[in-house]
């Protein structure tokens, strides 16, 4: 799903990411983005959800909203409850999330359960190529959280850093606290011709 502010390049990059994920996570029906807004007569008014979210603060990337409002509305919707699909929402609004008592300065994406929300707001001054890489990477990272990748504390190469993350080089499950750090992880993974590292791939249950 996208709100109306999400442009063509961003939609295309998101669709690509979802297609790639569908190949890896075959134990769930193919994810969809664009056509999830209306399923079996149920609809999620994604634009009004985003528009009606209270503005927490103004940032260099526009009005920032709390991701939890959009997330819980989608998560608790009849559409989502009645659908086997994983909810992937892309918004043009800058997002933040509460961590403990305080709000983070921002967040690129947020996942809880099988609904994940990503913002494209902070990638808009990057080159088209980097924007594509960031959107794809962030969606594949958040979908990795849906499937609990890198959460097993008994395995090696994990760390707790705003949630459990992978520390292997060339894995999109690496945590990047800045967009430059994330871009670096995504680029290395791409260069290595993969999305998740072998350890995380094992956890996907995929034979690919
Ligand atoms: Zn993460
Ligand atoms: Zn990994």
What features would you describe in this structure?
Helix 1 packs parallel to helix 5 and helix 5 (128-146) packs across helix 6 (179-191). The longest helix has 19 residues, at 128-146. Strands 3-4-6 form a 3-stranded mixed β-sheet. It is 37% helix and 20% strand. Strand 3 and strand 4 (62-66) form a beta hairpin. It is an alpha+beta fold and 208 residues long. It has 7 helices and 12 strands. The protein has a domain at 8-148: Collagenase (Catalytic Domain), CATH 3.40.390. The mean pLDDT is 91. It starts with 7 loop residues before the first helix and ends with a helix. It binds zinc ion (ZN) (2 copies). One zinc ion (ZN) binds at residues 141, 145, 163, 165, 175.
Key features of this structure:
single chain, 208 residues, alpha+beta, Collagenase (Catalytic Domain), three-stranded mixed sheet, 7 helices, 12 strands, 37% helix, globular, binds zinc ion
What can be said about this structure in brief?
The chain has 208 residues and is of the alpha+beta class.
Task: Tell me the layout of helices and strands.
Elements (H helix, E strand, L loop, with lengths): L7 H17 L13 E2 L2 E2 L2 H7 L2 E5 L2 E5 H9 L2 H4 L5 E5 L2 E3 L1 E2 L2 E2 L5 E4 L2 E5 L8 H19 L11 E3 L3 E3 L12 H13 L6 H7 L4
Parallel strand pairs: 4-6, 5-10
Antiparallel strand pairs: 1-2, 3-4, 7-8, 9-10, 11-12
Helix pairs in contact: 1-5, 5-6
